[in-house]
Amino acid sequence: xxxxxxxxxxxxxxxxxxxGHFAAARxxxxxxxxxxxxxxxxLWKYQGRDTEYAVRAFPLGGFVGFPDDDxxxxxVDPRDPNLLKNRPVMDRVIVxxxxxxxxxxxxxxxxxxxxxxxxxQEFQPEPGVLxxxxxxxxxxxAAKAGIQPxxxxxxxxxTELGATRDAIQKLMVEIQGSPNQPLQLTVQxxxxxxxxxxxxxxxxxxxxxxxxxxxxxxNGTIERRRLSNPFDILTTAxxxxxxxxxxxxxxxxxxxxxxxQVANQVAGPVKIVAExxxxxxxxxxxxxxxxxxxxxxxAIINILPLPALDGGHLAFLLIEALRGKPLPxxxxxxxxxxxxxxxxxLGIFLIIRDTANLIPQ
Length: 361
Fold this sequence. Notes:
Shape: elongated
Order of helices and strands: HEEHEHEEHEEEEEEHHHHHH
Structural class: alpha+beta
Helix content: 40-55%
Distance between the termini: 25 Å
Number of strands: 11
Number of helices: 10
Largest sheet: 7 strands, antiparallel
Strand content: 15-25%
Radius of gyration: 25 Å
Oligomer: single chain
């Protein structure tokens, strides 16, 4: 059920995004003849008075179609001002950017709902830093030292990390600043402190810093506090929205500036659903945060100036505004079709990779 819930969240977010485009067009009187969730062969469709609604085979997004390329087959004069291509640049910008705006608004509403229903999560730190995951490759310094998932690192070279929010930062500074130098880590396992410290030797990475091959998380418990004041609910949700948005932008920044180190963290639909299912299993209300996180990610990804994404269309509109006329159709279509194929190829690759990673080795 948790997997189905996570899939449902992703489907809703895609529908919200496309509804943004669709509503922005219809509210301006612009013709929109297709509303599709997914790409490829049609699995189900319904022909409305003005629009065909469809669900397609590859659930990697969706699209709103406009009769601009062949208006006469829809009984529309090619010079009709209600065709999208005949509208001023600003009208088209509104239609194209409306999907991103819809995702951002929906993300905030999800956070408002979660805060209103479940309250706010407050983290109560406990001593040390939690190690949720350890790389199992032979090259992993942590695996060689005997560190296991679920361990809590309490101290480095005899210096306690303490029950503070900056314990992770302290540990990272020690690891990154000690390439090829042994560190004595005091470890707690299954609630018991190990009798002897574990010796780990951070490996020198390409950026000149030490790495041991672990994922680190704050150690502590989460408690919920309910809010009754509507203003507090709205402001708390806004603060959480800002935090998620900033972290998402920073994550994309790291992907661009340090691609080799973080590329393997890029998740496809399968991994996203798996992570959503884990959150739903731990606490169903976490699906609201999951939905908000993915919705904000969808918005930011779509606004990037890449072919086949909303940002790519906006880039063409910017060029048109600067030139005073659009680029030739064959140029735009070639770029967009190439971008779409690359996007679908990446999506299929991520699905295959993430599915393989879910299979026990």
